[in-house]
Design a protein that fits this description.
By secondary structure, the protein is α/β, with parallel strands linked by helices. It has five domains: about 1-105, GIY-YIG endonuclease (3-Layer(aba) Sandwich); about 170-250; about 250-440, 3-Layer(aba) Sandwich (Rossmann fold), CATH 3.40.50; about 450-495 and about 555-690, P-loop containing nucleotide triphosphate hydrolases (Rossmann fold, 3-Layer(aba) Sandwich); about 700-790, 2-Layer Sandwich (Alpha-Beta Plaits). The chain contains 22 helices and 32 strands. The strands form eight sheets. A seven-stranded parallel β-sheet has the order 11-12-10-13-16-9-17, sandwiched between helices. β30 and β31 (about 750-760) form a beta hairpin. It is globular and about 85 Å long. The protein binds adenosine-5'-diphosphate and zinc ion (ZN). Zinc ion (ZN) binds near residues 510, 512, 528, 530 and 531. Zinc ion binds near residues 510, 512, 528, 531 and 533.
Length: about 800
């Protein structure tokens, strides 16, 4: 009997390797399929990684109990990627494999077989209502064989279902008896029900048939026997096409514009194309509006023409409808999009299209780096400085590291694009590890960089209202008069940051976390942005019972209110997590603003990045200090990047742009260099400080967070770790802490943090792998290890 090497879904250090199982002759098993095996006394899921002829195991091998998939769901590259990640981020290979599967294949998905036109009648008794839960435990070996044969003849269909409800609807469709006369009405009805099913038959009706014209392009889920009958009568012709719920179907298709490339663009395209068969990483450092996206598009076109595929990663925030339609215009239906707002069904369908080789280019957020595109010819990481490329919860990964890993695997170039590259990338470019390509000009000849003005909020004369300085106020009103648009950026949602009693100084804090509650006037709530706790806005102080409550720290809701007070005719739209949580709402806001249905767009992070509104001539940053004051080693870098990005939103059309930055730290180098749009100088200053304090790119940092409901246990565990690590590290490695995490208590759990700064320290990494293992069995303490390498 054949022997399969199987990675079992039991994530511990001892079990994170393959185990040998026998493959029963009647089971069809390939590498990359999921199976069920007995492990100890449990039945667990396993991934088939390899086949061998003999085993080193001295005991009696068990047989695979069940095969879950009909086709491999993972490929060799993904299996290797999972191993790479495990080593890099102190995680388990098997846990990483789940990262590479669509949500639909995780959790309690059940498999059902649907009968279409079964010729092997001996199988019929198995099916009730046209479906059978597909679980080979209940089937004899002969039955399994017959079912596979029927699947091959397309008489059965495998349906993955999240719940019985879905399947039941499907069953109704399959079993409904429809009089032939009622078909047009039924078709309408069934088409509407399509959202319930996973796969539907698309019927192409021949022209001239009474049903044809109206329904030709519609998806029809109707009993095959009815259609067969119609086909036999010669009134329709049947052909089978697998169809998908595609998130792009609804978006309007634009024709692609042929752009004449600028000199800089042509040179960049030429240089990168010359390296198509190497795994060179390019750092494309181009100011905002310098036409980087067009460079990605043009290169993708070349790659696809040569028969290869492309992945383009963008931060969640800049995967805008604008970006999608730009690529769609060139590549039509051969692109897939991948982001967190897709439904599970949409994601599953995009994944199947990719697997079925129906996609040439995937445009997506960080998790798109895992898509099973074969034969990659180019990987792009746009806005490479964005933090969102790193997933910091377990299983951790950094899409930028993976992009390079895959580039190496496929021997294809990787492009990191940014106006403000990470210090790490830029330092690598200086050492010629990456190749630097610079774009210094905006494409639009009138599109000069905007003028940036800094307003010192410490000077009382500058303050007009609580939120707007005199200069900003004047500039906003001027834009309104001239019918130009404005974007206001404030990185804080809600109405106010906290509520305080003016009589006794009591502040309203979250009962579960060490933070104040945010005031949301719009939904009449105080809410905690860390644990989600919500309560009604109190009328009086619970401490002194006075009613003199006052809010501090302005949020985006308050900004809208103050604009109304300035001039009630000015219309505003707000874009933050509160207004964009519903599906489609983000797109709607962008489109409204694009069509000038509002004069001012007020928002958090998401207005800062990626958007392109030609009529915006003014951008106001209401409080640049919010990100500067974050207790993180790269707060200056984040602030500089953010301000540069925001500034890039202004003056993208014909009229020159203006940016006003309000701050209490006008002399801070991050703010000064952002004002001058001088990346070069910022880079030097920040590098100097990083070197002084021993941070990236001079030292890598590993943060270890120890969390427990019992504070003393968290602290004690952290101290033990510190001791263990100091005994098992090399001399260069420094250990800082443990110290309370900057918000010590979140959701009634306490966190202490250690930081390790290292250059190269294999011994320390081994120790960390062991620590993970030891603490896994302890359910009172959680340990999160995060390895920051870029
Ligand atoms: P970046 O990504 O560098 O910020 P974009 O790619 O968004 O810049 O380009 C800015 C604008 O210039 C976009 O509206 C884009 O369509 C346009 N553009 C890019 N290349 C050209 C070109 N060669 N000719 C004309 N317009 C261009
Ligand atoms: Zn809370």
């Amino acid at each position: 009997m054949k022997i399969a090497k199987i990675l079992v879904d039991v994530p511990t250090r001892q079990t994170d390797r393959t185990f040998d199982y026998l493959v029963p002759a009647e089971l069809f098993v390939e590498c990359g399929m999921r199976v069920v095996v007995e492990f100890g006394r449990r039945k667990v899921t396993g991934f088939v990684v390899d086949f061998v002829d003999s085993t080193d195991f001295s005991g009696r091998l068990k047989e695979i109990s069940e095969v879950i998939d009909d086709k491999p769901v993972l490929d060799q590259e993904q299996l290797k990627m999972a191993q790479f990640l495990a080593g890099q981020y102190f995680t388990f290979a098997v846990t990483n494999l789940w990262l590479m599967l669509p949500g639909m294949l995780k959790g309690k998905t059940e498999k059902y077989l649907i009968v279409h036109n079964l010729t092997d009648e001996s199988l019929l008794p198995l099916f009730s209502e046209g479906t059978l839960r597909y679980d080979s435990k209940t089937l004899s070996a002969t039955q399994q064989k017959k079912i596979r044969a029927a699947l091959a003849r397309n008489e059965l269909e495998v349906v993955y279902s999240q719940s019985r409800v879905i399947t039941k609807k499907y069953t109704e469709i399959i079993n409904s008896k429809i009089a032939l006369d009622d078909i047009p009405a039924e078709i309408d009805k069934l088409s509407k029900q399509n959202k319930y099913g996973q796969l539907f038959w698309q019927t192409v009706l021949t022209e001239g048939s009474p049903l044809a014209v109206k329904h030709l392009t519609k998806e029809i889920g109707i009993p095959r026997r009815v259609l067969t009958k119609l086909a036999q009568e010669g009134s329709i012709e049947l052909s089978k096409v697998e169809i998908y719920r595609t998130p792009l179907a609804a978006s309007p298709k634009k024709k692609s514009q042929l752009l004449t490339h600028t000199k800089e663009q042509s040179a960049a395209i030429k240089e990168i194309a010359a390296s198509f068969d190497t795994d060179q990483t390019f750092l494309l450092e181009g100011i905002t509006g310098s036409g980087k996206t067009e460079i990605y598009r043009a290169l993708s076109e070349k790659v696809i023409k040569s028969g290869k595929k492309v992945i383009i990663l963008v931060p969640e925030i800049s995967l805008t409808p604008q970006m999608i339609s730009f690529f769609q215009a060139s590549f039509n239906d051969r692109i897939a999009v991948w982001h967190s707002r897709l439904s599970r069904g949409e994601q599953y369908d995009e994944w199947r299209r990719i697997k079925n080789n129906e996609v040439d280019l995937v445009l997506g957020v960080r998790s798109a780096i895992f898509v099973p595109l074969k034969d990659l010819g180019l990987i792009v990481v746009d806005e490479e400085h964005e933090k969102s490329y790193r997933q910091s919860e377990n299983p951790q990964y950094d899409a930028r590291e993976l992009a390079k890993w895959r580039g190496n695997y496929h021997s294809c170039p990787v492009i990191f694009g940014s106006a403000t590259p990470t210090l790490t990338s830029r330092a690598k470019a200086e050492r010629q590890i990456y190749r630097l390509i610079r774009l210094d000009k905006r494409v639009n000849p009138n599109g000069h960089l905007p003028t940036v003005q800094i307003v010192d909020l410490r000077d009382r004369n500058n303050r007009s209202s609580k939120i707007f300085s005199e200069d900003l106020k004047r500039a906003m009103l001027e834009r309104f008069e001239r019918k130009e648009q404005t974007i206001l950026f404030l990185n804080r949602r809600g109405y106010a940051n906290f509520l305080e009693c003016r009589n006794c100084g009591y502040t309203f804090n979250c009962p579960n976390c060490d933070v104040s509650l945010t005031l949301h006037l719009f939904e009449h709530r105080l809410s905690c942005h860390y644990c989600g706790y919500k309560c009604a806005i109190p009328m009086s102080c619970p401490n002194c019972h006075e009613t003199d409550l006052r809010s501090f720290g302005d949020g985006t809701e308050k900004v809208e209110e103050e604009i109304k007070q300035l001039n009630p005719e000015i219309t505003t739209i707000r874009m933050d997590r509160d207004t964009t949580s519903r599906k489609g709402s983000y797109q709607k806001i962008i489109s409204q603003f694009e069509h000038h249905e509002a004069d001012i767009l007020v928002g958090t992070q998401s207005v800062a990045k990626g958007l392109n509104f030609p009529e915006v001539t003014l951008v106001g940053v209401l409080n640049a200090d919010i990100s500067l004051n974050r207790p993180e080693f790269d707060a200056s870098e984040v602030t500089f990047d953010l301000l540069t990005q925001v500034a890039g939103r202004a003056g993208r059309g014909q009229t020159a742009g203006k940016v006003i930055i309000q701050t209490y730290n006008p002399n801070h180098y991050a703010i000064k260099e952002a004002k001058d749009q001088n990346y070069e100088r910022f880079f030097r200053e920040e590098m100097y400080l990083r070197r002084l304090h021993g941070y990236l790119p001079y030292y890598y940092t590993i943060f270890i967070k120890v969390t427990s409901k019992e504070e003393m246990l968290a602290l004690k565990t952290a101290l033990d770790l510190q001791k263990l690590l100091s005994e098992n590290k090399n001399e260069q490695t420094q250990i800082l802490g443990p110290a309370p995490y900057y918000i010590k208590r979140i959701n009634n759990e306490y966190t202490y943090q250690l930081a390790l700064k290292y250059k190269k320290d294999e011994k320390m990494k081994m120790t960390l792998h062991e620590i993970i293992d030891q603490t896994q069995s302890n359910n009172k303490v959680k340990i999160n290890i995060s390895n920051v390498t870029c």
